Amino acid sequence: MTWANALKKTARAGLTIERITLEPLVAIRGACGVAVVVGLMLAFGSPALAVSSAFGAFASGLATFQRSWRPRPLLALAVAGVLGLSTFLGYLAAAHLATFVALLAVWTLLSGMAWAVGPVTGFVATQTVAVMLVTVTLPTSVAGAAEHAALILVGGLVQAALILLFPIRPWGRQRDALADALAAEADYARRLRHDPVARFDPQPLMDARSAAELTPRQARGRPRQLGGPRGVAERIRPVLASLADPIVGAPPEGPGRDRARELLGAAADVLDAVARAIRRGRPVRVTPEVMATLEVPESGPRLDGAARRSALRLMALLADVVEASDEPLRATRPTAEKATEKATEKTAQKTAEKERRHLLRPTMAGLVPVGWRALRREARWSSPVGRHAVRVTTVACVGYLLGTALPLGHGYWAPMTSVMVMRPDFAQTYQRGVARFVGTLVGVWAGAGITALTHPGPEVCAALAVVSVGLLYLLMRTGYIVVSACIGAYIVFLLGIAGEGWSQTVQARLALTLLGGVLALAAYALWPSWETPRLRDRLADWLRTNGDYALAVLDAHARPENRKRRVREALLDARAARLEWEDAAARALKEPVRHRGISRAAERAAESALATLGRAAMLMEAHLPGPDAEPDPGAGEFAAALRAALPDAVAAVRERRRPDWAGPRVALAVWVARAGDEDEGVAVRGSELLQEALDELAEALAPGQQGRNRAARR
């Protein structure tokens, strides 16, 4: 992609406004936190103290809207504490330019590296730099600096107290994550009715797993509805795929396929019903017709062999997911009452065990060593996060010095714009840069226009600032251009409380916003961290994890003792690697860089092959033998050959060589000859599909394949 096309696409994306579901009550609660703090400071303090405390309440409330699974009050307190520390240090160093620039460099470098811990941590760290740049412009002494820092902490305390006193849909994000995962599987089941090899996006399942990670304190208060359905939903997905697959499941055509479609439709209805029940905290409602479909028919079309086993297992898992939702099943059938009583008794017996078997999330104190390890891992020149930290530090310091030297005043606005705009990847940085300037233009002019027409006093400015922050909280997920407009107006009104006129705001801030945006975009253009050259490494990681997943499944067929934990861990690693590849490929597609090492056509072919490889392993996982089943020596031999060939194949992907799968191919041929035409050989047929995917991968990545593709097109 050329620079012109890349800039046009990123600019269009930055100016896009999306339609979302609004949460007015949550936005009103956050705005009330700002209003309480500002009102108290205006009544009993000074305008300067009102501004400092307002920034603390604003940033603490902003953090609670981020996609984090930690308790909202804890997020507000943590953000307020870090903001208070950064503001206090900034006040101490603000009197001396060299000292403040040195502090700004250190703090910005640490905030840039915070992206290694996670996006929420990176966002919060960025907020601390922005607030420090604004608040230290208010004159004060050392004692006053401590007072300002304490008031910022008070702003966070107020936000946390409001969340505790006025809870709005507790555990709502966790409920939505689990419901989204179940709804995604329902959609997958419906698509399988018409496309037996439909693709499935694992992101909702990964979000549900992240939402299920709890600290010990959270585990004691988690609703029972959120305790069990996720694990059952994870086991349903391979069963759905194996039932629909024309190779190891229902026949491609005929009565068996019709019966499979009925079961898939009924499964989708049940999963949607459970998703609605979890999202709203209500009982599960399933129609009698759906329940009748999920019973073994006395007459009519039937399934045989592996397809029958998949159907029976699907019926059992759907019953488990309804039971795990911990709500009674309501239906008009008279037999449902007894089934409900039994389900309730079983659920009560399992509740204590489920509460003890939650996924662990480190506490805030336990997050320190985790964050330290992440920082050490990313502290290298080749790391995108490390390069981002150095890049944003340089831009912030240069922007602050330029803003101070220019006769515009408000020199902090340029580095604040750069810090808020810059992200570790190209697309987000350029999208936010364009959106920041346009949004600030709209917000500052709107705020200045209102101020010029009404000449408001401090109390009216405070009210207008609260309205601006309320709109920000309400519309935050519609797009960064809306966020920038609300922030621009908010700061105009907020600084109006301290007596700064609108005529001092508009031109200077717009010019410095443009300067900060240009510095951010130029820094990324001059010293980028492109994703395109790393695509082969991402592809190799996906191949390695997919291969480990297939090996875990084959080993379970070869030695049927209980190996489900290893299969589960390998599946999670493969899923994470796939999402990393998809994110990297999406970012690379927006970069103005020619391919280095892999063409777009080879990239798509390799992605399709690895997706088929993972699907083949999933189909075999759906039919794992029980612990007392007979071992399958053919599966063990094929697994040994694949294990021997996998490391060299991963290296070949990185080194632009063709992967060699001769060993696994020979082992599979021996296994197929030994198995013959057995109708029950799910592992054999799944392994054949797996070998086909490996051969497709080798063909896609063969040297010179790109030239042959171009010749064929001509």
TrEMBL record:
Topology class, membrane: Multi-pass membrane protein
Transmembrane parts of this sequence: 74-94, 100-117, 149-168, 389-413, 433-453, 481-498, 510-530
Keywords carried by this UniProt record: Membrane, Transmembrane, Transmembrane helix
Integral membrane bound transporter domain ranges (all copies): 399-522
Region (Disordered): 209-230, 328-355
Domain of life, per lineage: Bacteria
The UniProt record lists the keyword Transmembrane helix: yes
Cell location: Membrane
Chain coiled-coil ranges: none
Protein name, UniProt field: FUSC family protein
